[in-house]
Amino acid sequence: MNMQTNAPIPGVSADQVVFHRTELNVILSLYGRFVAAGEWRDYGISSLREVAIFSVFRRSAEYPLYRIEKRPKLRNKQGMYAVVGMDGQVLRRGHDLKTVLRVLERKLIRSVDTPD
């Protein structure tokens, strides 16, 4: 995996963790499919000192349904990407973002399938 330092981004200090453009492309692709299915309606991005968080909401005025987290300090341990549920339970953790997001793709398949 190519490790890059945080490039200067307006409004983000150098010691904050941010999602890279390629990571955001993967996340937003999944987000768009859930929006098209009518499951998700809003999102928020937080860049903190030790974690970057992409939060997904059904409505903008409630708690996030899921949080996609990037924690670079866990890179050599459990993996720096995680999907966390509304209750705080880690649904999946790993080193590859696409693999970690599969736990949500399964939910998309179930929501699109309609029983006869």
Report a brief summary of the structure.
It comes from Pseudooceanicola marinus. The protein is α+β, with helices and mostly antiparallel strands.
Task: Report on this structure.
The protein has one domain. It is globular and about 35 Å long. It is of the alpha+beta class and 116 residues long. The termini are far apart. It is 28% helix and 23% strand. It contains two helices and five strands. Strand 2 and strand 3 form a beta hairpin. A five-stranded antiparallel β-sheet has the order 1-2-3-4-5.
User: How confident is the prediction overall: mean pLDDT?
Assistant: 81
Overall 3D geometry? globular
Number of E-type strands: 5
What percentage of amino acids are in beta strands? 15-25%
> How widely separated are the two ends?
45 Å
Low-confidence stretches: 1-6
Helix content: 25-40%
Biggest beta-sheet profile: 5 strands, antiparallel
H-E string: HEEEEEH
- In total, the number of domains comes to 1
Number of helical segments? 2
Structural class: alpha+beta
Order of strands in the sheet with most strands: 1-2-3-4-5
Rg over CA atoms? 15 Å
Pfam family, one: DUF2794
InterPro entries: DUF2794
Protein name: DUF2794 domain-containing protein
